[in-house]
Amino acid sequence: MEELLTDTRTCPTRLKHAYMQERVEVLREEVRRIVKGSKEVAKILDLVITLQRLGLDSYYKTELDELLHSVYNSHYNDKDLDLVSLRFYLLRKNGYDVSSDIFLRFKDKEGNFAAYDIRSLLGLYNAAHVRTHGDQVLDGAIAFTKSRLTTQLKHLKSSLRKEVSFALETPLFRRVRILETRNYIPIYEMMSTRNEAILEFAKLNFNLLQLLYCEELKKVTLWWKELNVQSNLSFIRDRIVEMHFWMTALCPEFNYSLSRIILTKMMAYITIIDDIFDTHGTTEESMMLAEAIYKCNESATVLLPEYMKDFYLYLLKTFDLIEDELGTSSGYRVFYLKELFKRLVQGYSKEIKWRDEHYVPKTVDEHLELSRTTVGAFELACASFVGMGDIITKETLDWLLTYPELLKCFTTLARLSNDIVSTKVIIWLYTCASTYIFIFACGYIFILSSK
């Protein structure tokens, strides 16, 4: 049985690597036969959630979609809380319209959830986290299950205790996919119901992914060193490894390697630009950089102070290299990336103007209208699209430039999460600082300005 690769410094030989790839192909088809042979609702749901948690579901997207569709239209035991919870979780997660009213049957006469076994409570806890706003049934389910699981945690057996502990820290719906795979493989291995082919496939797939990530990290690290940040931009946060790790969380599959590399580089540039505007550059220097990025050509270098010139030229070079790597059929996508970077620095420039004028936005909407554009999420969305192959069309990128509502929701979430953490850090660091903080009934905290 293949073991998980825990130390990437001891990489397999080329022959071993080739064997791993060949073995994966054999196991992939063996598991495909298992998927196609699944008929009963309970077994289908168990198989789907297992493949998702082991990071294997992307190999069987069509087959799993068909299985979930059959589950949606099939009769099932609606008195089994564990089964009901798993069905609800998987269907709602995959876009099916399923009502949380199904859980009302598990409440007593007083409207409280009755006591159930730990496995069922864990299933309900995870299912409840795919709730929508104002869903009182699932709100109550979270409160009940969290309390009960926390109380019972220390009395559980090792494998179940580990799974419950993970869930209480981060519900299943919110977990980083690649980390969930790493954590779940040993849990699955301890199960008496495990399938050996699925387990071996999961381990090999994970190990091959780790080797690919190491190759990507080598490329972006060499690229970062060539940028020579430590000499030219010593004030910049040196976090290239962390940035690449974020991108493995965003799109972990094999076929998104180019996207991860482009995303890491663009995230690094966003960090550099943000640090210049936010902490290091003067107002005049920041405005010069904004103008240069808006022009986006080498002639604009004369606008910049000496310490920015190499970075700016390297940014242009990176755009050109990405365009070359994409080829003639997809190179046009870099235009959209440049356009969004221009919008990003326009937003930064407006924030500087607000700062210098001591302007405080009058409403949340006014604050978000600007701060959504400066969180960098649109740029990263575009960067991910740029490297995703033929699945992305020109129409997709045109749509992105319209600031669609879907991505506004995403950027709002990113901005609020960023602001909440920033608020906690500032309060911790500067307990006596005079800071304008708006706290709204919905529970969100925004930092609008500091003195």
UniProtKB/TrEMBL annotation:
The UniProt GO MF terms for this protein read: magnesium ion binding; terpene synthase activity
The record places domain Terpene synthase N-terminal at 16-168
Record-annotated Terpene synthase metal-binding domain positions? 225-424
Picking any one GO biological process from the record gives: defense response
**Protein's UniProt keywords contain Transmembrane:** yes
Recorded hits in SUPFAM superfamilies, A to Z, give: Terpenoid cyclases/Protein prenyltransferases, Terpenoid synthases
What residues form the membrane-spanning segments? 425-447
Q: Which GO terms describe its cellular component?
A: cytoplasm
Pathway membership, UniProt: Secondary metabolite biosynthesis; terpenoid biosynthesis
The UniProt entry, under Pfam families, shows: Terpene_synth (PF01397), Terpene_synth_C (PF03936)
Q: Which UniProt keywords apply?
A: Cytoplasm, Membrane, Metal-binding, Plant defense, Transmembrane, Transmembrane helix
Instruction: Give the matching CDD domains.
Output: Terpene_cyclase_plant_C1
Q: Which cofactor does it need?
A: Mg(2+)
User: Source organism's superkingdom?
Assistant: Eukaryota
Q: Where in the cell is it found?
A: Cytoplasm
What InterPro entries does the database record attribute to this sequence? Isoprenoid_synthase_dom_sf, Terpene_cyclase_plant_C1, Terpene_synth_N, Terpene_synth_N_sf, Terpene_synthase-like, Terpene_synthase_metal-bd, Terpenoid_cyclase/PrenylTrfase
Q: Which family does it belong to?
A: Belongs to the terpene synthase family.
Q: What is this protein called?
A: Terpene synthase N-terminal domain-containing protein
Q: What is the lineage of its organism?
A: Eukaryota, Viridiplantae, Streptophyta, Embryophyta, Tracheophyta
